[in-house]
């Protein structure tokens, strides 16, 4: 067919963007099926589209509570959309092709390289396989451990389903739950086991498959790790710690709650405390964490930890008139430029989105709108509670912002231009940005 | 003296910073003198310090109304502080040295170069003279035209004083008034003459002395202007126009009001409408305008129009994979980096300041705190009205932020490091940043 030929000749970025859009649309259809929706519940298409986007973009913002709205089949669809979104449409496609024994052609390899933020095409198929294996192992262990918690509340079959859903949701940093009542994990705020399991899944899911593989290959020895892995791990640790301390300073929560919310804000989006009771300074801390987000090549969003690191190094270098260094490597010259571009595009999306939301919903305060839009952009899913009451315009806006956030603002900005040659991803000093 | 010797050996940035701090302290003392304060009014030192900082940093945020608090002598001191702040401590110092017929030595020339954001030391003395002359001409004409307005309300002597003060305040983009009642220019919101005169003074004061001189030299012919002048004039025009249109979209104000507030937000800080009645989207537009601010080498603050332009060019270049151009010149490679550094430092100051203000004054909403802090950083002086009721901590914070905003965040960041060689100001393509 002519259309298919034309599609095949498109640059990778466009094909990936189209793939995500297609999965979102199919997902919204699946969630609208009568067998997906509980008896007596009405779902408007805008909310199905919102939920599907939120799932595929692993955001977790909810206009309708998944536990109270969807049947087990609908929740299964939702879990599937989260898994596809978390792995990425391309990886899932490649996985299927590999699984049925077909060969991945050159075009396909290019797509995978672009989608997974890789620097070279070497060992690509092996990498895709390891991504699937990693996901399976983490989600399996996560589900088993979660089961020990949920079995106390539900009958075994339901507990198994809830555990599996929770593990998938947590590892993919999606923030969804099917516990009902719209309270997310608040009932479990003091359950140590569920706090630990969820945080573990979030952290490994958000650190990136490349780094997980490096950690396995290096058998956890710090010195053997690349600069990229060291940067990502250090920045994540510093952000988690400082976020927790700052939240503890202004909010009336336990230390476990402070750590959980600090970890969760950087893209996972689960909450164990009602955010609408947070102080505005506390929410501002969460907004900054949400904006920075997870690490590249992970299931998470935001401008990314490595981008944030390169920005800080650039500022330090400007203030001290010295070169940019990190762990005895020089930061590549081009990195600061790319990090800046990504951050400014992200700021533009967040500020513009906040403006438009407040114009379309005049009753919404700056703090709530900024929080909601940053959450959508960082594919976080936390909310001060305004989501269900937003106008259709603001919901469509959130859908667009989640989509931009999942694909990355730079990918979106370059969609209209066929870039000659590949854009630099991993440069000299080996650090992935965005 | 040993101390003086040591001081002389300091890099220009530190001497300038010290000079500003000294003038602020002296100013706060002058404003505390009994002869400066009206009978029956009590002024706390924190408010005198706040007012002096606000004047020297040409901000115009007021904790106490100048018209209701100070005597004509106090108001004269205030006007003097604004004039010194607007011209810059260095230029005033150089002006005095030149006026008494002394020679400016090499060290002094270096200081002037740094303070006035110049690219070379050529014609420095001539430039300082032209700066004084320009100021005198504009403020003289401004005062005469303002007099035709104020004579209808005050007796001639008072009208002359008010006119002179207003002209100085407007040309130096300070936003102060001595009309009393804390209503700034709201009583004159429909006075066409005062709107035009004030806008004219603000625009020329904010466009930079270099550009004014270029306009005179080129006899207003566009083609003869440098890239820097073209950029600054175009960006200012686009910002004024789009700001006015956006304000008109969400606020219930006249077109003249929309233009006045759009012009005034980019660092002048006069208001003809009560800002606390503005919608939040409207305030967000003002916040963005305040953050961008005026042009380099002017009396205004913010990250500067040229910085904003270079950022936009960098984003465009990244999205289209093309070089950065402007008016048939290539934008120098280093510009984007410097513009990014300045903008991130500015964002850090604004976000950090907003956080601290909300921690110290828990009752203040995000929208008001963000507005107040951006206003202080951009040395704008607009406020939603929270200034007088802020805690001492928040007032000290505002004082610090006004000071950082006036000197520029990059100057502050490099204060602790002696930079080897001069930092690049004007590079290849000739565009001044920050
Ligand atoms: K999420
Ligand atoms: K001002």
UniProtKB/TrEMBL annotation, chains A, B:
It holds the Pfam family TrkH. One of its GO terms (biological process) is metal ion transport. Its main location: membrane. The keyword Cell membrane applies. Keywords: Cell membrane, Ion transport, Membrane, Transmembrane, Transmembrane helix, Transport. The chain crosses the membrane at residues 15-33, 45-64, 76-100, 131-151, 192-216, 228-247, 283-303, 339-357, 399-418. The keyword tRNA processing does not apply. It is a multi-pass membrane protein. It is found in: Cell membrane. InterPro entries: Cat_transpt. One of its GO terms (cellular component) is plasma membrane. GO terms for molecular function: monoatomic cation transmembrane transporter activity. This is TrkH family potassium uptake protein. It comes from Anaerostipes butyraticus.
